[in-house]
Amino acid sequence: MTDTSHGIPTAKYGASAARFDHWIRTDFVELNTQLEELYFAQSDRANVVGVGDDLKDAMRRGGHEHIVALWREGNTDDGFDSAFGVLGNVGLYMGALRRHELTNPDTEDRSPFPEASSLALHIGATIGMAPRFATAHLATHNYAVNGVRKSYTSLKDEFLFIDENTRGILALTEAAEALARIVPLGVSNMVALDLFESAATSLERAITINQGLFDNLDRDRFFYCVRPYYKPYRVGREVYRGANAGDFAGINQLDLLLGLTRASDPYYAQLLVDKLLFMTPGDQAKLKDTMRYPSLLDSLLGLADHAEADWFKRAGAAYLKVADLFAETARQHHDNLVEKFIVGPSDDLGDQHLQQVTASGPPLPVLIRALEKLRDFRTAAKRDDIETRADDIAKLRELVS
């Protein structure tokens, strides 16, 4: 059954939540798009202060009306039946307020939007997630209504980013699920070869999807009109970092199952803790389970006495194929997305805008160093400051050859 005016399933959304969802998909998108066109037409495209103030006020007031209705409704079957969707919509609204400089954590000690903060905090605590929109809201759980996905704007580059990012996440998730099925079978089980091949096929698809995104995404439109919506903002007193494309279990499951890092590694463990609440509860459970599994690399190295056996040669080669493809996705992400779409455009910014660039919070040089570490974990690059699996991967190559 659907709401006759909006085409939104009443089983998915209560009445107040459905009205808010409809506003997010319509007026909200139109107001953001008009503002982006105003910003982009300027010589200083990063400047948003004093531009389109009437549109910003209309957005603030429009969202506020829906949020107050839900806030007053409280934890009832009507609104909170759709808790995850409502959390995403409140988060999208607050993300837009941040993007348009109606709030800025650097100049405030608490959010100037108490009702929105209270609603987000209430729902976040209820479902066990950070009280802001997450990657899943615009990717794997972006429920389409009559073909319309949620977005901030109607710009084609935002839809390209949302759609291809979702496809990439799904491909990596499929690869992780295939590898996870090897654990109860054991690497010497011949069926494991089929699962390694399934993982490889999924990673090859992820590489193709990512390359298509990098080739077709407009650099300036992404940098100036898409990425700013992913900035950190305050919910109540606390600053929550921006949603990150890596906030899903699959990417970390691949790290751990392939043995490219360990959940006990001090640097990587901190990363897992920091991102856990930005995942859906289902993804949180999958990642926690994976943290208990032995890695496939350690399993193979533990069977090195059988290196001359045919099954070992085949299993080792299948593992290395998957590891090499995963390494390629890591290099691809860093060399294309990070360097081309973040670092390059940042060089053109004035100092007054530079500190506002990163969605994850830290200054750009700090962010880049962190991303380089992740790339080097995933490519098993030799480094002196962190423990990668470079030597162990080299040992397995030798055994297989």
Proportion in β-strands: under 5%
Number of strands: 2
Please trace the helix and strand order, writing H or E for each element: HHHHHHHHHEEHHHHHHHH
- General shape: elongated
Count of helical segments?
A: 17
The helix fraction, in percent, is 55-70%
Gyration radius, rounded: 22 Å
Distance between the termini: 60 Å
Lateral arrangement of strands in the main beta sheet: 1-2
What does this structure look like?
By secondary structure, the protein is an all-alpha fold. Helices cover 61% and strands 1% of the residues. It has helices at residues 15-25, 27-40, 53-73, 83-99, 114-127, 135-138, 156-180, 191-216, 219-226, 249-257, 266-276, 281-290, 296-301, 310-346, 351-354, 364-378, 390-400; strands at residues 233-235, 238-240. Strands 1-2 form a two-stranded antiparallel sheet. Helix 3 (53-73) crosses helix 5 and helix 14 (310-346) packs antiparallel against helix 17. The longest helix has 37 residues, at 310-346. The model is unreliable at 1-5 (pLDDT under 50).
In short:
By secondary structure, the protein is mostly helical.
Sequence-ordered SSE layout with sheet pairings:
Layout: H1 15-25, H2 27-40, H3 53-73, H4 83-99, H5 114-127, H6 135-138, H7 156-180, H8 191-216, H9 219-226, E1 233-235, E2 238-240, H10 249-257, H11 266-276, H12 281-290, H13 296-301, H14 310-346, H15 351-354, H16 364-378, H17 390-400
Antiparallel strand pairs: 1-2
Helix pairs in contact: 1-3, 1-4, 2-3, 3-5, 4-5, 7-8, 7-10, 8-14, 9-14, 10-12, 14-16, 14-17
